[in-house]
Specification:
By secondary structure, the chain is of the alpha/beta class. Helix content is about 35%, strand content about 15%. The strands form 5 sheets. It has a 4-stranded mixed sheet with strand order 9-12-13-14, sandwiched between helices. Strands 1-2-3 form a 3-stranded parallel sheet, with helices on one face. β1, α1 and β2 form a beta-alpha-beta unit. α3 crosses α4, α3 packs across α5 and α9 crosses α10. The two termini are about 15 Å apart.
């Protein structure tokens, strides 16, 4: 039996994407076995045990191997974020060498080939301080990316054509070869996994707009506003919802476990995690972008300025978003000409994504070729 070893970065979002990649391989090569290597991270990523148990019981060909913290030699790499993020990391060493300041101290836009200008402060929180160990880790990872034989990107070609071309042409790596690349897809979970919600304690959950489900519970206050007719604010622990039919109700989507499509949400207020973005696009659901941490502010720029599948939520200087702003953006998405344009765009991307994963599609073909070349099939 042929075996495939997968090595995800710690964290539920990364783990789910890697599991879905394994499922995709099994779908087309049922004789394979998948081993996913799990290392203990140096920081708290929340509990993954219920999720691992569920996958192990429902997919016997997928095994999880728990290892001590090690450094593995890598030949090929599954990049579970989008192509724009990969373009940033390929260009990151060049940016690092152009300044001695941390991103948090740079009040400028970073101009990176293939993607819209991004405020330095909108890069991942763990990269804002160049003295941080996480910054050093990302810099080292970025320097090694062009040396890989190939990179599987968690996207599809029609969604990010400019960034894909920039990387394919070697421009993002500032003249260094960026190796081969393929848009493998496969990072969107096929269904909801019950019992994997403990990890959400450190997460800000999301909202399906137009769902009939109860408002989503929050771990801390998120909205500052007074109630108004038709809109409920039952407590600071809950996102508000409408009690007049066409409104704003929430559903726990946690790690983006298939709930966007299954609940048939017509609009989606999202924290801009890449799993959620892909799932919404593949379900044809336009979004309102409300990023909170990690690389989500970067994703918002790409979603709004490049992909044209989301509206941006405006924040106060203190980082708060009022209920008035939420209502304004959701209504804009539902009623304005710009909202109509977004709905048409996300529908087109949904269809493009389906085509990419069909036989002979722009994602299916390179993934099949990768499996064949890797295992001599």
């Amino acid at each position: 039996m042929e075996s495939v070893d997968l090595y995800p970065t710690p964290g539920m979002g990364h783990l789910i994407s890697m599991v879905e990649l394994g499922k995709l391989r099994l779908k087309h090569r049922p004789s394979f076995s998948i081993s996913i290597l799990i290392v203990t991270p140096p920081y708290n990523t929340g509990s993954t045990a219920p999720y691992l148990s569920h996958v192990s019981s429902t997919f016997p060909s997928i095994a999880f191997l728990h290892l001590p913290t090690i450094s593995l030699p890598l030949d090929s790499y599954f990049f579970r974020s989008g192509t724009a993020c990969l373009a940033f990391f390929l260009y990151f060493p060049f940016i690092h060498n152009q300044t001695t300041k941390s991103f948090k101290d740079l009040n400028i836009h970073l101009h990176i080939p293939g993607i819209p200008p991004v405020l330095a402060s909108d890069t991942s929180k763990s990269m804002l301080d160049r003295e941080d160990k996480a910054y050093e880790f990302f810099l080292n990872m970025s320097a090694h990316l062009p040396r890989l034989a190939g990179i599987i990107i968690n996207t599809f070609e029609a969604l990010e054509p400019r960034a894909i071309k920039t990387i394919s042409d070697g421009i993002a790596a500032n003249g260094r070869s960026s190796g081969g690349g393929g848009c493998g897809g496969g990072g969107v979970p096929e269904r909801t996994v019950e019992g994997d919600r403990n990890w959400v304690r450190e997460e800000w959950e999301e909202v399906l707009v137009g769902s009939t489900q109860p408002a989503v519970r929050r771990s801390e206050p998120a909205i500052s506003a007074t109630s108004r007719p038709g809109y409920e604010f039952s407590s600071p622990r809950w996102i508000f919802g409408s009690n007049q039919g066409e409104g704003f109700c929430g559903e726990d989507v946690g790690a983006s476990g298939g709930r966007v499509e299954s609940q048939l949400g017509r609009r989606f207020v999202t924290h801009c995690g890449w799993n959620s973005v892909l799932e919404a696009v593949c379900a044809g659901v336009p979004m309102v972008a409300w990023p909170l941490y990690a690389g989500q502010r970067f994703n918002r720029v790409v979603m709004v300025e490049e992909m044209k599948v989301a509206l941006s939520m405006e924040e106060s200087e203190e980082g708060f978003v009022t209920a008035t702003e939420v209502e304004k953006r959701v209504r804009e998405l539902m009623e304005s000409e710009e909202g109509k344009s977004l709905r048409l765009q996300v529908t087109a991307m949904k269809e493009a994504g389906e085509a990419a994963m069909s036989d002979g599609g722009s994602s299916r073909t390179p993934l099949t070729e990768f499996v064949k070349s890797s295992y001599g099939l």
